[in-house]
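Contributing: when you submit paired examples, paste them exactly as shown. First protein:
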Amino acid sequence: TEHLTYAPNVAFGPNELGLIREVIPLVESRSLKILSAVPPSDDPVLAESKPFRVLSHLVGHESPGSLHHLLMEEGWVSSLSSGTGVAASDFSLTSLGMSLTPKGMRERDQ
């Protein structure tokens, strides 16, 4: 199956990529969100293989040896989630969200 051809527009230009935004909330909050632009989820090839679902399962699974388990064992996160954050006609954003512990906030750049 062929991938769809998308408009020549890109979701984000070079000046919008690789940015870290730090926000000072009004109430205490420790979260980390990582977003990645990917092809739209209704692309026929992606619809068949469901990579977003596989990624979500791999990241969110809590079995020993998993990413979720490792981050919990290190005491860095209290929760973790992943999935498609935004789905548009010519791109999607895959999202990884974590609620950080105080230790995780201190060591977030590790």
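Second protein:
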Amino acid sequence: RQSPPPDRETTLRTPKLYVGSLHRRITDAHLQKLFQKYGDVSRVFRCTYNAKTGKPENYGFVHFTRVEDARLAMKGLDGVELLGRKLIVKPAHDE
């Protein structure tokens, strides 16, 4: 019998979050304002265009100074609707 997969919120070990399904009108400033309610945001980066295709991207990254704040933001904002789109908020992976 397999145990259930670990909960993303309890396994979060990075203060960096991936934010997907963003409407094209969302800016860095919008993300900063939305996420700072959960703690000290050290950096926001909104990917605007794919360099290869020239098409708009729909994701960005939010970096908190504390993992605990990132965990709260992920729990509070994942699935929340913003400009008609449900946000995807999950841990960012360093590559």
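If you have annotations for the second protein, write them as plain sentences, like these:
The first strand starts at residue 16 and ends at 20.
DSSP finds three helices and six strands in the chain.
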